[in-house]
TrEMBL record:
One of its GO terms (biological process) is alkane catabolic process. Keywords: Signal. Residues 1-21 form the signal peptide. This is ATP-binding protein.
Length: 126
């Protein structure tokens, strides 16, 4: 006989699994230590010129530093929030800092964007 407690526990585990699967970034490892990555394992970066919850990287900057795109209906989860970019698209942020990849990284674990542009770009770390 299935008890209410078992049903509640199963439901709670199912819900938490969905929440974890919905996180926009994963944990990777680079020479800098634990690093946030996108679903393909590419390193994510933050930009010093961004203000809390606002991207300053647009135009050619965004071509070189593609924003970690979020769906229009994406919901914040834990340390992750969604910011609206100047063009109206949505981007994931971690602890208020918008997240980007770097076009010159060619494989998971690369961190060639760290400290680029006079040290204004940084590997995103938890």
């Amino acid at each position: 006989m299935i008890t209410r407690a078992l049903i509640a526990t199963t439901l709670a585990l199912s819900i938490s699994g969905v929440a974890l699967a919905a996180e926009p970034a994963r944990m990777g490892e680079t020479s800098k230590g634990p690093t946030l990555t996108n679903a393909q394992g590419m390193t994510l970066y933050t930009f010093d010129k961004d203000s809390d919850g606002k991207s300053a990287c647009n135009g050619q900057c965004a071509a070189n530093w593609p924003p970690l795109a979020a769906a229009a209906n994406a919901k914040a989860s834990g340390a992750y929030t969604v910011v609206t970019r100047d063009d109206g698209s949505h981007q994931w942020a971690y602890k208020g800092q918008p997240l980007y990849t770097w076009v010159k990284d060619t494989k998971p674990g690369d961190i060639t964007g760290d400290e680029v542009n006079n040290g204004t770009w940084h590997v995103a770390q938890p």
